Amino acid sequence: MITIPYLTAVSTYFSYGLLFAFGQLRDFFRRFIDWWLTTNLHGYAPICLGHEDFYIRRLYHRIQDCFERPISSAPDAWFDVVERYSNDNNKTFKRTTKTSRCLNLGSYNYLGFGSFDEYCTPRVIESLKKFSASTCSSRVDAGTTFVHAELEECVTRFVGKPAAVVFGMGYATNSAIIPVLIGKGGLIISDSLNHSSIVNGARGSGATIRVFQHNTPSHLERVLREQIADGQPRTHRPWKKIIVVVEGIYSMEGEICHLPEVVAICKKYKAYVYLDEAHSIGAIGKTGKGICELLGVDTADVDVMMGTFTKSFGSCGGYIAGSKELVQYLKHQCPAHLYATSIPTPSAQQIISAIKVILGEDGSNRGAQKLARIRENSNFFRAELQKMGFEVLGDNDSPVMPIMLYNPAKIPAFSRECLRQKVAVVVVGFPATPLLLARARICISASHSREDLIRALKVISKVGDLSGIKYFPAEPKKIEQTKNDIKLD
Amino acid sequence: MYVRALPTTDVNRNTEWFTYPGVWTTYILILFFSWLLVLSVFHCSPGIAWTIVHLAHFTVTYHSFHWKKGTPFGDDQGIYNRLTWWEQIDNGKQLTRNRKFLTVVPVVLYLIASHTTDYQHPMLFLNTLAVFVMVVAKFPHMHKVRIFGINGDQ
User: Fold this and answer.
1) Which ipTM score applies to this complex?
2) This prediction's pTM
3) Which sequence ranges form a coiled-coil region, renumbered to this chain (chain A) (predicted)?
4) What are the pLDDT digits (tens) for A424-439?
5) Nearest by CB to B21, which of A9, A48, A51?
């Protein structure tokens, strides 16, 4: 639930109206000027239909320097951001050779596997020397090595399901699997804030799509009852299959899904549950096994568990875990398995080593330390930000914390000023988030030390004062006497 | 004072912003401040200023609600390319609160404009024409209707 000051909402609408009006004015004059200049492409259809590139040209390009900044080191807690400059008002950029060392608050480096790791990296280099960088083939042709088989077995052990299949790309996992699982005559009920990979997969499947209010199990039940009673769109026959798609942690809100209620409702109405654990696997739960462990849901109740290796394991790719029959069916039908290149062997080795570290099978307790550290870091950071008066979304224990900005002018202000102070944050606006609710999203990592977090808090507090985003009254500062907290000045 | 922003179920990012709190107030405030602006720039009588605001409002809203089709970004792969903004709002459901509000605003503006100009010609004629076109365009029966193929698809 997001609480906005009323004046901020009104001024945000007004700002967007003004930006839109200026964009239209410039487009109007641009049409005149382009009419004079001749082009030699007569008879060709335009590349963009209508005004579908209006937002990109007139709003996004103005603040393009806040996005897609190139980095030149591994995404550790501190990394090098390449400095760029633009000669034509942010339309194109030129890179310089200078870099600035910034604190990394944007990478999904939840457990710190994003850079050199003493257990994982030597094994990955060995695997690179033995197997080379790519398998150059799909899984069914010549792309399955024993590392791939070991990886799938590791994933089943970690996630707690009978079988798993691994793909080379996390986005492709969702968009290639959902069309295989359900087709025309089926119903997909997805959370309103699901990731675009799920939306694309659902649209590509041909099934009917209905949306329920974000993280509201009561609305899910209402939609289910209405749809089951109604049946298929024109014929009103019963649905062939109903799949409810939810995510473990929603990447733009940092909220944790109400999984027990969703699973109970789906059991009652005999719908399948598809859980996308992209951000939650490896980051939450006592031993890092994700949202099922955190909320005490039996993994046998969730029919399809999907996840990606990009966030907590420092690699690439995605997996689907389910029953043996499901995985065997997917291996025979899914185009991402039959035709797409398999996951590179060194990346697979990185995932295996990361899972071994998390489970403690490498002989040390570094995994447990990392998990405890990310939990402590997230809770500390979130509590301190809320004390300063920022509006921070997300539940406790979630390593993703968006700070609400709202006003479109504060998006570049926050981003650029933080970069000047050597803190790199990611800001998100329309259309990835709703128009009114632009935010700066902070991802905490286990490799952030307490000093890093305190430094980040100081910078964010100063920049927050400058841009006026402390929408809630700050709590009066007290001197903490407990041994866990450090006095902030 | 704070308001709660409930998450909506509208997946169309082009129209979803209209369901959040504060839109109606912003709309009315923009109209009021543009009247003040016209008064201060043109040094005319209040009635002429309201007429100018009404006609400018007609031009802008007709163009953006009932003429321009599609969405200003490409993420939705063009599924709304045949629908104007008015037809996209509220997922195409007719007679919702938002639609009723948007129909009432031009009528109220018309009443204010004609009252403050004392129903004289030629302002009355222009105002009446504008409000007639606006209100007819918003009828539920006009959903996806293209008269004489104007603004139809190629």
Assistant:
1) 0.91
2) 0.88
3) none
4) 999 998 878 888 889 9
5) A9
